[in-house]
Amino acid sequence: MSASGGVGGGGGIGGIGGLGGAAGAAPPAGPGPARPLRVLVVEDSITVLAHIREVLAAHGDIEVVGEAHDGAQAVALCQRLRPDVVSMDMMLPGMDGQAATEAIMAHCPTPILIVSSSTNRGELLRTYEALAAGAVEVLEKPDANAPAGEWERRYVTLLRLVARIRVITHVRARLGGRPAAGLAAQAPTPARALLALGASTGGPGALMKVLQSMPAPAPLPVLIVMHINAVFSRGFAEWLDAQTPHRVRYARGGERLRDLAGQVVLAPPDVHLVLRAGVLELSHAPPRHSCRPSVDVLFESLAAENGPGTAAALLTGMGRDGAQGLLEIRRAGGATLAQDEASSMVYGMPREAAQLGAAERILPLSDIGPALMGLSGMAWGGAHK
């Protein structure tokens, strides 16, 4: 996400700023010139529901085909109505939004936009779980103090964009299997000094699966750029830490790479993470590809500073951030991987890397962690959670 939050400002996770292709199954008939965008609204607050209804009624090409007030009703309506996109609240009576998201992705996979609060810790953690289960993007609930029309424009824009994503069936179940038994570990020649990952849309679940498949502590420092807006950054490192065997935290400027062995550090929101002279730096330089932090900024610094000592992987995400940086790492003698189309929620960033010839290997998500372990010289012993 950029400092402004991606498309049109606002808060979310997922880096929706330009559409790449995506893999998986889509609702049977997407929106087009012949018919309006069909939206299922899931919201238990009468006030918020009335506001959403009013916002969408102002657009002739958008139709609210159903309204649900709890998770069970949302799942039933989604199965019956087959909307193009679901607007999903998290805090619902009975079955909450997280459980409803998981059920929808299992039984009637549909693009989901979460409309959530970032100030409630429980709701925030449920939001990360829903993103890991296959929801595409998240937007902060309406703020009475926001400039008039700003949230409304952002909401409609995101609904249109999210509806165009071809979602994967039951992300949690599909990506939960063991990697292919025949995956060969590569000898660490030359010796690697660090591992790096970049991700955007679909990133919470993808990063979770990669880190779950890597034994802790990791043999090398792991540096990660995930497109995330500052509004929803609170708790993300904590959530990822709780889902994996690793200690995960945000990076701090001035840390020496040699002191980070076995640690997993994320680029903080709204700043670039770079490596210079063996030290991590946080930069407020302009966004790259409308993203800050940018995967390219980190990867390019690793290519220049650490070249052959870097093993990097570019995961699911929209746009092209990270592809050029991955190519520079490969040209500098580092090892490079990209996630394949079949396992990507959005095959944008890794597709760009593949087209540039930046990735030595293109692998399913379940094989990325074991491949990184092989490149670090450590045999893979299976998922730890």
Short description:
With 385 residues, the chain is an alpha/beta fold.
* Overall residue-averaged pLDDT value: 86
Low-confidence sequence ranges: 1-11, 17-30, 170-188, 379-385
Distance N to C terminus: 29 Å
Architecture per CATH nomenclature, i.e. the level-2 architecture of the largest domain: 3-Layer(aba) Sandwich
Task: Determine the oligomeric state from the structure.
Answer: single chain
Using only CA atoms, what is the Rg? 20 Å
Q: What is the CATH T-level topology of the largest domain?
A: Rossmann fold
* Apparent shape: elongated
- CATH domain class name of the largest domain: Alpha Beta
% residues in beta strands? 15-25%
Overview of the molecule:
α4 (121-132) packs across α7 (203-212), α9 runs parallel beside α10 and α10 (323-331) packs parallel to α11 (349-356). The chain is elongated, with a radius of gyration of 20 Å. The protein has helices at 46-57, 71-81, 97-107, 121-132, 150-163, 171-174, 203-212, 236-243, 295-306, 323-331, 349-356, 365-375; strands at 37-42, 62-68, 85-89, 112-116, 137-140, 194-199, 222-226, 248-250, 264-266, 272-276, 279-283, 310-314, 335-339, 361-363. It has two domains: 37-173, Rossmann fold (3-Layer(aba) Sandwich); 188-375, 3-Layer(aba) Sandwich (Rossmann fold). Strands 8-9-7-6-12-13-14 form a seven-stranded parallel beta sheet, sandwiched between helices. Strands 2-1-3-4-5 form a five-stranded parallel beta sheet, sandwiched between helices. It contains twelve helices and 14 strands. With 385 residues, the protein is an alpha/beta fold.
